[in-house]
Write the structure tokens for this entry.
Amino acid sequence: METWSHDYCLKITDFVKEHIGYFEYAFFAQRVRRNQIIYLMDDPADRLFRVQEGSVRLTTIGEDGREELLHIVRAGEFFGAVCLCPDYRWDHQATVHEDGVISSMKAETFLRVFFRHEDLLQRFLAFFAERMVRLEDRLRQLTETLVQLRLLHFLDQQVQQAGVEGPEVRVTVSGWSRVVGQVTELPVWEAEKLLQQYRQEGLLDWKRNTVLIRVDRLRARLQELLARPIGPVAETPARELSEAVS
């Protein structure tokens, strides 16, 4: 069985934040004073906090022993986590920055509230299913971008190796269709579909192993793809996007 990760707790915390109406009554509120310690580094991470009034500063201790500011949590914002890890501890500390009121909910309280509301399970499943669909769609878009970058980078290399200046460059690529499949790592029919798309866009044309590349359109498409925001995605696709044009 896969080991439980604190990353899962952070996603559960996101769920609680988005459905705070179900959990608000389970938060215990207390008035706090400036410089009051809420938790220290290496304390058990056992609850989610919400600032109702005032503010809280999150800090860590640097290598030189000095306190380094990470973030100021304002009224209405959360810090901490609904942590279900058996022995996870904070890697930072929280201190009251301005007098106010802070409420908190323990992880065990979250479980009691969760199982008390039947419709929460459906909302919980929908919450994560929606994110999985969104992630799959984002990864699909990244994969398509990566494939195009591989092919366009290959074509750009052919232009540079030809050493010919001008808006159009003809190059000979032995085994053109086979090479495109190898470069893009696509099945033959998908590689052919991409080539036909570029032909319709006027980016390139070919007859057997002779390929006509319209350089300006090639470079413009490269720049367009490189300008697309990657966003928070899996490390491997993001790294490959960078390597594809290196």
Observations:
- The CA atoms of residues 20 and 245 lie 45 Å apart.
- Confidence is low (pLDDT under 50) at residues 233-238.
